[in-house]
Amino acid sequence: MNATIYTADDIPVGGWFGQDYFNVNENETKKIRISLSNHSLAIGTYFISLSLGKGNFAEGMIDFDVVMNVAKFSIIGFDSATKVGFATWQKQWGNVLFNVACNIE
Description:
Blueprint: E1 2-7, E2 12-17, E3 44-56, E4 60-75, E5 78-79, E6 84-85
Antiparallel strand pairs: 1-2, 1-3, 3-4, 5-6
């Protein structure tokens, strides 16, 4: 399974290319659960598009099915566990919040 995440303005932010994990036979139904950890997406609304096929971008791919805008989700910018968050996020800052250590000597 491959996917691309887009901003609400339909700009690709990033994605992933999966392995050939499973087969789907005719008239068969499968449930797929996706978990994206440490995404670093900035506050905003996003869409995800998925494709099923075989191969990868380095060796070549064949998509059997592509579904655009499968799910809409929002990053709200507040961590209820730590009670820390951002009140606003400006578009000109981009769509990824990098986790960077900065030491000044």
